Amino acid sequence: MGTDIGPPDYRTMLPEVIKKNYGKWKYHEILKPGLLKHVAEGGDELYTVRAGSPRLLSIDTIRDFCDIADKYCNGTPGDLPARHNIEVSDRR
Is residue 26's pLDDT more than 90? Predict the structure, then answer.
């Protein structure tokens, strides 16, 4: 049940692949600095790219995010799940 006091429940903002495999990750690989591959016991794979952004985004930064989505995610800009974050996925 939601509340207007405190931060929102993070579990409501998790992508389905993370909800499905929460606590069931078999292993993690660091492919290169800032790029991680997570493999679940069931075989699902998830890639994490670490990147930073400022608290306030300029239109140029938002356009850069959209360019990344166009290039790697079939044009799907992704979700804005919480403060200053963006999620993009090639599995929509």
Answer: yes
